[in-house]
Design goal:
42% of the residues lie in helices and 16% in strands. By secondary structure, it is an alpha/beta fold. The protein folds into two domains: 144 residues, Nitrogenase molybdenum iron protein domain (Rossmann fold, 3-Layer(aba) Sandwich), CATH 3.40.50; 192 residues, 3-Layer(aba) Sandwich (Rossmann fold). A six-stranded parallel beta sheet has the order 1-11-10-9-12-13, with helices on both faces. A five-stranded parallel beta sheet has the order 6-5-4-7-8, sandwiched between helices. Strands 2-3-14 form a three-stranded antiparallel beta sheet, with no helix packed on it. Strand 4, helix 6 and strand 5 form a beta-alpha-beta unit.
Length: 437
């Protein structure tokens, strides 16, 4: 079922460089965003009411913001085990985020008389776009909100599309309630990006927009960033690459591929293996299982359109192929998986060994599943607490910094800045002491 690819560049062609959007797509999305900037709530309601590919839900202005009563009542509609699972996911996300935050601040005595301190200051207000509508994704809200809250973000605005009966899915509201978040708006997500970027009568402007979406939502975030609002990353259709050798379990590899493919028909799955037999066996395993799955037809179409298998000559070629793709998720199911992982330069997250199912990492390991796609893992990693912290340098130079003053004087003279040099010369050993950092 997976298309065999002989050329490694053909394997990675879609991820070699993130393609510029078609001018007509950018113009279309930018038109929506600027219309929201101009008409505010009126435009937000308008786009939400339009037929597919919009949401086809007509809302009154008062219905844009989800009420506190709706949020409080949502937990009663969620099965107890599911609610407890969300709480467990929150616990692990907090543990990982708190550990990340402990790396800030740090102090360093650069040289005699020169001290450096890096501190973190949280963003004040962020917006999270959460896919919803036909299929709810409460885990996406958790993956974005917990690191932000851990970082100390004061205000979080959540935008998610309504279902056909105007309601927001109870699981999303329950997740928000467990985190103590109450600012939730139901609206079209492309238009929501415009509302978060520019503000409307109901939705206040944010400093940064985070969260995944389809290619139009991802493009909307990129367009918004050109107008001054920060974004996390282009997070488009999900990707999984599996690097495996002949020792891999064909059933586990097949299930991982099917699990990734069931996200949507646009999901990308790659099998990179040194074993032709494994590739054949995985195809057979998928064929024998897929028809009995509820989303089997989506899986079949996804693999048929975007499933690629590459038979590598050796592990070095397999690693090179993975680095070229720079996939969102990389699962290494090989005899020496840990060693191979140290050779990987570019991916969103690495899953080592048979037990490390991508599906577990998507929900329960404490690592955010909002990860770079489309080759963007070449330049950044997944969402973390650091995405919500501004890193500020604090510096102290005292009278003992003879070498630093001399270095700066020489470079100021080299670049022709006389006042720079004089400002340095005006300071010396007799400078009064200042408090250490």
């Amino acid at each position: 079922m997976m298309r065999r690819v002989d050329d490694v560049r053909e394997l990675a062609v879609e991820n070699l460089a993130s393609p510029f959007p078609l001018p007509k797509d950018r113009e279309y999305v930018e038109g929506i965003i600027l219309d929201v900037a101009k008409r505010g709530d009126e435009a937000l309601l308008d786009y939400t009411s339009r037929p597919p590919p919009f949401d086809d839900v007509k809302l009154l202005p008062a219905e844009l913001r989800v009420s506190g009563e709706e949020i409080e009542g949502a937990s009663e509609q969620v099965e107890g085990g599911k609610a407890l699972a969300m709480k467990h996911s929150i616990r692990n996300l907090r543990r990982v985020s708190e550990a990340q935050l402990r790396k800030i601040p740090f102090r360093l005595e650069v040289e005699r008389g020169v001290e450096y301190l890096r501190v973190g200051r949280p963003l004040r207000r962020i917006g999270i776009v959460v896919p919803g509508g036909l299929a709810p994704y409460p885990s996406t809200l958790l993956m974005a909100a917990v690191p932000a809250l851990t970082a100390g973000v004061e205000e979080i605005a959540i935008c998610t599309p309504p279902m056909s009966d105007k309601r927001v899915h109870a699981t999303i509201l329950t997740a928000a309630g467990q985190l103590g978040l109450g600012e939730i708006y139901r609206c079209n997500l492309v238009a929501a990006v415009g509302a978060l970027a520019f503000g409307t009568q109901t939705v206040r402007q944010v400093d940064k927009i985070v969260g995944p979406g389809n290619r139009y939502v991802s493009l909307a975030k990129q367009v918004a960033s050109s107008y001054g609002v920060a974004m996390d990353m282009p997070a488009g259709p999900s990707e999984l690459a599996i690097m495996a050798d002949g020792t891999a379990d064909k059933a586990l590899v097949a299930w991982d591929i099917m699990a990734q493919a069931e996200h949507s028909e646009d999901s990308k799955v790659f099998l990179i293996t040194t074993s032709r037999k494994l590739a054949d066996d995985v195809d057979e395993e998928i064929a024998s299982q897929v028809s009995r799955l509820r989303r089997g037809e989506i899986i079949r179409r996804s693999i048929g359109r975007n499933g690629k298998a590459f038979i590598a000559n050796d592990e070095e070629e397999a690693v090179s192929a993975c680095n070229l793709i720079a996939p969102e998720h990389l699962s290494i199911q090989a005899k020496d998986a840990a060693r191979l992982s140290r050779k990987v330069r570019s991916c969103g997250t690495i899953l080592i060994g048979r037990g490390s199912a991508c599906a577990i990492a998507d929900y329960a390991t404490g690592s955010s599943h909002i990860l770079p796609t489309g080759g963007h893992a070449n330049i950044r990693g997944g969402l973390s607490v650091h995405d919500f912290v501004k890193l500020i340098s604090v510096q102290r130079v005292d009278g003992k910094a003879v070498r630093a003053r001399g270095c700066a004087s020489e470079l100021a003279e080299l670049e022709g800045f006389e006042a720079h040099g004089l400002s340095i010369a005006a300071r010396g050993r007799r400078m009064p002491p200042t408090q250490r950092l």
